[in-house]
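Problem: given the chain below (446 residues), write out its structure.
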Amino acid sequence: MGTMFDTSLRIDAAGPRGIPIVNNLRFLRHNAWYALDHVATRFPGPVVPLTGGNGSVVLLRGEEGARSYFTENDVFERLSDGIFALPQGRPWSKMFDAVITFNGERHRRSRRLLMPITHKSAMDHYATVFAETFKRSRFARTDGEPFDMAAEFVDITRANMLVCLLGIDVDDANVELANDVARLLRAFQNPLVLLFRSEAAWTPHGRWLRHLASVYDRLELLIERKRADDARRDALSILCHTVDDNGDRLSTPEIAGELHGLFSAGFETTAMSMTWALLTILGTPGALPDTEQELDAAVRESQRLIPTVPFSLPRRVARDIRVGPTVIPKGALAFATPLLEHHDPASFPDPEVYRPARWTGAKVNPYAFLPYGVGQRRCLGAAFADLQIRTTLGLMRWPSLLTTEVDYVIRSGATAFPGKPVLVRTGPRAPAPGPVTGSVRRLWAA
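Solution.
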């Protein structure tokens, strides 16, 4: 546990009272509620330690904090050298190496080699796939049978990832592969896997490593098959055949790591972004968007109000750095705080109110709205995710909301899901059986 939190570190900054290791673990387990209850209105930052005076874990708030986290890459360790380090010398040792974890020249190289998957010709292909996937979904039916919209969005997003990212069919074996890739990071964030690292077969970490090796073996076969084929329009085929101006190309282990990064950043997160967007649209009387501009505003407002990823991945400080008046010590873990920025009344008046009109013609500070990060560390898949969300919701004939009690639950310390199924029904629209309730209302005022 000490390898993750160095509770001996000191910092000259105010924060919540308590025992550092206890506060750190409480934050990892319940980060949204911990931050809202103990940090949001009491400690404006830009640097807030989870325990006052202790430098083991800090939150970076406001423009100064976000700018440091997202742009000062050389002052942070690579995630795959620290928290997400894997045993070296194995075929799968680079599975946590990706553009999302790199710094400096490695980050720039990976970003350069990945850019072709976002070119217009590729995006046009993705849009066609998104529309075809929607037509096969339960949202396109009119049978009136209730279904869980969150689970359906997961199915939609998984199918889109398989076809657009991997260029493979949506069959049982490939669905299992997609689920296994997505589970890697989620399972790794289990404290028993993350904090107690033993390769022994009977340990949680040892079992996770065997799962990792199995996923890598399947991805390696797929990558080698794609290399042998002619270039196609799916992202994996593009990556396998991309050569930059220097003759550089990605190796098989590098491509496997990037695929894992793209799945981790864009699968369940995109599905939940659509879930929260549809919930706010259906749960707000008179809020059904009629135009593309109104839909865009509704999506942005949902991403602000109910962030799918309330806090960033942690970054380890590689040397003492100053953010505002505070020096953060080498070894501290730093988190950016999208949830707190999105609910800052200085940037968004009445922050708990769902108000899509606030986005009409508005210019928002990019460091105040962080659904995909900002600057060099802005998610490379942001355009892919945005296109998927707007294509899917843009084709929708708005269903009726049947479930009104909805909890905002963080799974594995990263992504916000509804606590239980959220049922909807297609066909003739009916008013909701009542106002939306549940813990989501802590973020979204009635």
